[in-house]
Design a protein that fits this description.
single chain
């Protein structure tokens, strides 16, 4: 669950321009709001939830396919004990090189397609087993998915305009927050940077992301702090300070609300699980 200044997926090279993973969310949990250039395709396997793409909320269940077109703000939330799905991300430059121009075509955001589920099942098998030449098979299947999307699931709505004021405003604010999360951030700082009225900005931000500006800032900070606790070996005080929390009590309160766990327990649980694996 990573979200950075603007989520740029780490694709090694264009010979294997695909990221694939199985995801599982639990009741009330959701991926942080983010956006990226690459096309993202979600294949719902089990449970119920919502996928919000900019200001449209899609209810999802087993068998649904969700396409997040290039540069769309989005997040996923579980409404049941467990929401399971496959996530396939295909590099935008690779798509362009094949003639699948993501800037000119808008793919339907929600639909059902058994053929695509058959293809993603083969991708899952190849990625999980990593047999000889699995990258070639995965890449070939990714091309099949793109061809199917462009042949059968191009939206009839008017061409999407990525410069719509509200969307660009939210993207710029998210970039600012994720760049300055370690510093003191005020609403005035953000609106000065993006050049919009703060009341219009706050209302639009909540509508598109589902959370307030302050809640989003805290979500980003807790996400970063969590990574520091388990990956960088930071103490709770260090993680709090590096993520813009000057009050350790407030940090602990926000951390527990976000993760259902005290930061010290979160860190110790990770260390315990790591030791078991060694």
């Amino acid at each position: 669950m990573k979200g950075y200044v603007y989520e740029k997926h780490e694709l090694v090279n264009l010979s294997f321009p695909v990221l694939f993973h199985y995801d599982e969310l639990h009741l009330g949990h959701k991926f942080s709001v983010h956006w990226h250039e690459n096309i993202e395709i979600l294949f719902m396997l089990n449970g119920h939830g919502t996928v919000t793409i900019e200001d449209t909320e899609h209810s999802v269940k087993e068998g649904d396919i969700i396409v997040v077109n290039s540069n769309r703000i989005h997040h996923v939330r579980s409404l049941t004990d467990r929401l399971e799905y496959y996530c396939l991300i295909i590099d935008k430059d690779y798509c362009d090189s094949l003639g699948f121009n993501l800037d000119l075509i808008n793919i339907d955001e929600k639909f059902n397609d058994d053929k695509l589920f058959d293809i993603i099942a083969e991708i899952a098998y190849e990625v999980n087993n990593k047999e000889l030449y699995f990258e070639s098979i995965v890449t070939g299947n990714a091309q099949k998915i793109l061809a199917n999307l462009f042949r059968n699931h191009v939206s009839n709505i008017s061409e999407y305009n990525s410069t719509v004021a509200g969307v660009e405003m939210i993207k710029r604010s998210i970039e600012y927050i994720k760049k300055h999360y370690s510093e003191k951030i005020t609403l005035e700082d953000i609106v000065e940077h993006i050049g919009y009225n703060k009341f219009y900005f706050c209302r639009t931000f909540k509508k598109m992301t589902g959370v307030t500006v302050n809640a989003y800032i805290n979500n980003v900070r807790i996400q970063k702090a969590s990574a520091m606790l388990v990956n960088n070996g930071c103490s709770v005080n260090e993680a709090a300070s590096k993520c813009g929390f000057n009050d350790i009590s407030y940090f602990t309160k926000v951390f527990k609300k976000r993760t259902n766990m005290m930061p010290s327990k979160f860190k110790s649980n990770f260390v315990s699980e790591t030791n078991k694996m060694e």
